[in-house]
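FYI - complex with adenosine-5'-triphosphate, inputs then prediction.
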Amino acid sequence: MEDGNCDTRCKSPILSTDGEEANEDKIKERCWDQREAVLGEPKCVICGRYGEYICDQTDDDICSLECKNTLLCRIANSQKPVRLPPAKKLPVTDECFYVRDSDDKSGSLSLPMDQAELLRKKLEIHVKGELTAAPIISFSSSNLPKKLLQNLEAAGYDMPTPVQMQAIPAALTGKSLLVSADTGSGKTASFLVPIVSRCASVRLESSTNQKKPLAIILTPTRELCIQVEEHAKLLAKGLPFKTALVVGGDPMAGQRHRIEGGVELIVGTPGRLIDLLTKHDIELDDVIFFVLDEVDSMLQRGFRDQVMQIFRALSQPQVLMYSATISPEVEKMASSMAKGIVVISVGKPNRPSNSVKQLAIWVESKHKKQKFFDILMSKQHFMPPVLVYVGSRLGADLLSNAITVTTGMKTLSIHGEKSMKERREIMRSFLVGEIPVVVATGVLGRGVDLLGVRQVIVFDMPNSIKEYIHQIGRASRLGDEGTAIVFLNEENKNMFPELIEILKSSGAAVPRELVNSRYAVGSFSVGKGQKKRKHSR
Ligand SMILES: Nc1ncnc2c1ncn2[C@@H]1O[C@H](COP(=O)(O)OP(=O)(O)OP(=O)(O)O)[C@@H](O)[C@H]1O
């Protein structure tokens, strides 16, 4: 069998109908073992991976035995039974997923429930609540508009990520969801795909020209709203799906004008949206989706009242809530927003992405700057483009100026005091590689997808472990390796027990000053009702 990387594909049939075996020991059994197709290569008709082989019974491009069986099962379901040479059937326990038509109302082709459970187990997808929708193993098995499938393919989304495999079909059944999955694992498309699909269908089936908003997405920062809106436009190209960005710092008149001209989706920050809704008569009675991205941030003090004010103006929409860090309190609050909510979690919750290598450095505050410049001047440790997190706007301005003066590298700071024009320009120049370092406060702490960034330096620890998880999550997208350097000292003592646990469970070295610190013994300040906790050695 030729190497799968050869220029011309292996034409040998996977199996011949006379039962004669092909050179099977080298054939890939599962689609997971097959690589992604590169531009110009044939794609497996089932999963979209490299179509290394040709199915000898249908002449289709196929990536593995598993996908061949899936293909033949589909044919078997739609025509007279096709005899599979019994010796060749993959053993029942094998993770070969047969897709067959189902009567589930989402219209998706779903796995039989026993195999759905097998797939969930394999991918650590946990579901709590009543859910009929099985995970999908390809976008095409979700009955999505053809144009949306083409846009997904054009965006390079050949296969759904684990969170998308379950959250997309679940959302298409009309269920409200609370979803947690690692940073960088594809949560955004998990809610955008069902929204674009359903809203485009509503518009296509509608007889009136009236176009009141059908979906609202709220996020905690302007940068994340901009990113989510861009993502939605990309997926909705060629479909009757217009968006409006409603964030502070931009002229409100333009935002109102756009909505009144007819949009399907509003993406905004809560404060500006409330401003707009109170000053202008915008009808939200057609809204069918209400999305809270970074839901734990959206339901904490400061945002929660505004979020609930907007939610109460709607007529019981489907609620989709997402984050990489969801606590039991957030789950309780979220569950009170919608009946029959389904909770989906992928992997281990409230953990940094495994793809981010953490390097914790113990350094006194007065020495942090020197240590930081040692890293910036070291060819071994400095891997631009680098995102640096600090605790204040002034700190961001001072540090970025110091970097420019000391190293000559053009460095900019980004925070809430800068205008939207400046913030957009800084993000653009960072993302296209014009500037190697950006120093940021929390405005870039969550959700933003900084493709190309593989190194984050947490100069000042944030106020909570969950913000720390989101910040270092910028260093890895979709499982790519990244590094996070974090400066620690006694000033961060309130987070020591959780930090030690996070570092240990991620396999990162724990500085001995941290372990030996008297604040790290696992005893929390014994407040009312709190018990002293012995720290396991
Ligand atoms: N199915 C897919 N195939 C290929 N790339 C994908 C897929 N889904 C998402 N991506 C890409 O992976 C990156 C991370 O996706 P996304 O930003 O949605 O992650 P996230 O889970 O929302 O992260 P965070 O928790 O940090 O907000 C993005 O660049 C996105 O375009």
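Residues 458 and 486 are 5 Å apart (CA to CA). Residues 187-205 form the longest helix (19 residues).
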